[in-house]
Write a sequence for this structure.
C-alpha cells in the first residue's frame, strides 16, 4: 500500500466512531496502585499475594480471565473490564454509558468485589497520580509483551518514560462525536483545556520518595516521555484539525510494536507508513492497535480520549466525569469554549502547562489567573448537567473554589503525619461509608 491507501484505512476507524445524537455515551478508566497497608510500598505482580493473586481471586468471583501465555493479565464482567498497566496498576473501565449514576454503580460493584481481597492481604487500593513510596527502579514490569517492547524503546526517548509507565496512575474519560466537524470541535476544546484539567486533578504529592514542591508532576512526566507521541499534538489547535490530520500524525510516528498474525513484534526504527508499504490491507485489529501506540494528552480512536487527570478518590473521579459531560455534551458550553480556544495555539497551551507546574491556580490566563477561569468552567459544567447529576460535581467545584488541589491537601497531611497522611488516598473508607 502507498501512504494514501494506508491513510484511508486508518481514517475509517475515526469515521466509524461517529454516533447519532441519541447514541452518544461516555466511559471512564480509573487506574489504582496496590500497596502494603503497613508502609504503602508497592505490591508487584509476581510476589505472594501479588497482583496476579488478586486477579485470580476476582476470577473466582465470576470475572472472565484474559491470559497472555500462562499469565492472567485482565478480567471482564458485565459492564466492566479490568486490565493491567506496566507496573501492575489495576485499571477499571466501564463500557460506554450516558448515565453517570450507572457508571458510579458499576465502579462500586468492582470495589465491593476487590476491597475484601485487599483487606485479606493487608493491602490498600490507592487512587493517586504517582507512587508515594516505592521508587521506579524497584517496581518490575508485569509480564505483558507490549510493555517490554515499550520500555526498551521509550527509555531512550525521555527522561521520565519509565516513571510514566510504572509509577503513574490516571483517570481517563472517553467521549463520543457525531461527525468530523464535531470531532474537530471537541478535540480542539479538550486540547485547549489541557492545562486546567492537569491542574484541577493534580493528585501526586510525592515523586520518587520526595514531596513534590510544584503542581502536576504528571504534566512534567509526560513532557519528558516521548516528544513524538505525548503532550499536545502539533497542529491540534489549528481550526480544522481533521481526521486526516490526526492520521497523518499516526503515519509519521513509530508504533514501537506491531501485530503480525495476532502476535506482537517490535517495529524497528521506522514510521508507520514505511512499515506497511508492502502490505495490501490492514486488519481492524492491527489498526486499533496502532491507535493505542501514541499517548498524547488528547487521543483519537473511535472516540476521543481525555487523558490528563491523575487518579483520584471515587467522589472526585465521578465529579471529574460529570464535569466532562457537562462541558462536552452541552452544545452551548462546547461552543463557548471553542470560541475562546480560537485565541490559542499549540505553543500558547504548552507555555500555560509550564506555568501551571510552577504557579498552579495563579498561572496567568486572559488577564487574570487560571483559577478564576476554572471557576467559570466548573459553573458552566454544572449548568450543562441534568438536575439529578449536578450534585456529583460538588467535590471538584469545592476544590476549585478553595484553590487547593487534592494533592496539596495530601502533602499537608503527609508533612504532619508521615506515611499515615496517605490514608485518604485509598478507597476503603469511602466505599464503606458510601
Amino acid at each position: 500500500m502507498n501512504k494514501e491507501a494506508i491513510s484511508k484505512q486508518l481514517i475509517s476507524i475515526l469515521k466509524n466512531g461517529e454516533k447519532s445524537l441519541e447514541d452518544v455515551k461516555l466511559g471512564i478508566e480509573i487506574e489504582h496502585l496496590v500497596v502494603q497497608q503497613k508502609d504503602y510500598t508497592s505490591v508487584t505482580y509476581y510476589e505472594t499475594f501479588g497482583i496476579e493473586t488478586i486477579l485470580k481471586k476476582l476470577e473466582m468471583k465470576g470475572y472472565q480471565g484474559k491470559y497472555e501465555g500462562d499469565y492472567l493479565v485482565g478480567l471482564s464482567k458485565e459492564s466492566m473490564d479490568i486490565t493491567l498497566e506496566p507496573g501492575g496498576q489495576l485499571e477499571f473501565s466501564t463500557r460506554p454509558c450516558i448515565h453517570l449514576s450507572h457508571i458510579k454503580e458499576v465502579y462500586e460493584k468492582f470495589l465491593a468485589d476487590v476491597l475484601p481481597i485487599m483487606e485479606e492481604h493487608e493491602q490498600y487500593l490507592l487512587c493517586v497520580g504517582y507512587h508515594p513510596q516505592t521508587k521506579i527502579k524497584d517496581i518490575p514490569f508485569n509480564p505483558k509483551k507490549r510493555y517490554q517492547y515499550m520500555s526498551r524503546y521509550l527509555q531512550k526517548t525521555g527522561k521520565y518514560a519509565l516513571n510514566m509507565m510504572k509509577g503513574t496512575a490516571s483517570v481517563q474519560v472517553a467521549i463520543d462525536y457525531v461527525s468530523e466537524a464535531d470531532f474537530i470541535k471537541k478535540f480542539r476544546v479538550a486540547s485547549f483545556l489541557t492545562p486546567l484539567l492537569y491542574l484541577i486533578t493534580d493528585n501526586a504529592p510525592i515523586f520518587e520518595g520526595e514531596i513534590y514542591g510544584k503542581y502536576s508532576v504528571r504534566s512534567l512526566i509526560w513532557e519528558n516521555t516521548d516528544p513524538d507521541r505525548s503532550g499536545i499534538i502539533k497542529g491540534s489547535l489549528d481550526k480544522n484539525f481533521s481526521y486526516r490530520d490526526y492520521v497523518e500524525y499516526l503515519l509519521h510516528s513509530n508504533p514501537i510494536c506491531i501485530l503480525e498474525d495476532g502476535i506482537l513484534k517490535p517495529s524497528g526504527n521506522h514510521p508507520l507508513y514505511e512499515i506497511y508499504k508492502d502490505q495490501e490491507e490492514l486488519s481492524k485489529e492491527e489498526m486499533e492497535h496502532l491507535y493505542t501506540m501514541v499517548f498524547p494528552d488528547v487521543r483519537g480512536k473511535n472516540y476521543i480520549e481525555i487523558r490528563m487527570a491523575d487518579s483520584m478518590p471515587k467522589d472526585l473521579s465521578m465529579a471529574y466525569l460529570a464535569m466532562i459531560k457537562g462541558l462536552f455534551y452541552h452544545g452551548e458550553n462546547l461552543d463557548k469554549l471553542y470560541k475562546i480556544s480560537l485565541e490559542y495555539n499549540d505553543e500558547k497551551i504548552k507555555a500555560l502547562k509550564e506555568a501551571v507546574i510552577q504557579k498552579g491556580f495563579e498561572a496567568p490566563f486572559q488577564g487574570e489567573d487560571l483559577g478564576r477561569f476554572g471557576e467559570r468552567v466548573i459553573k458552566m459544567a454544572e449548568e450543562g448537567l441534568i438536575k439529578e447529576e449536578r450534585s456529583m460535581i460538588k467535590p471538584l467545584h469545592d476544590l476549585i473554589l478553595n484553590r487547593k488541589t487534592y494533592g496539596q491537601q495530601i502533602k499537608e497531611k503527609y508533612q504532619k503525619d508521615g506515611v499515615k497522611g496517605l490514608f485518604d488516598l485509598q478507597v476503603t473508607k469511602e466505599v464503606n461509608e458510601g
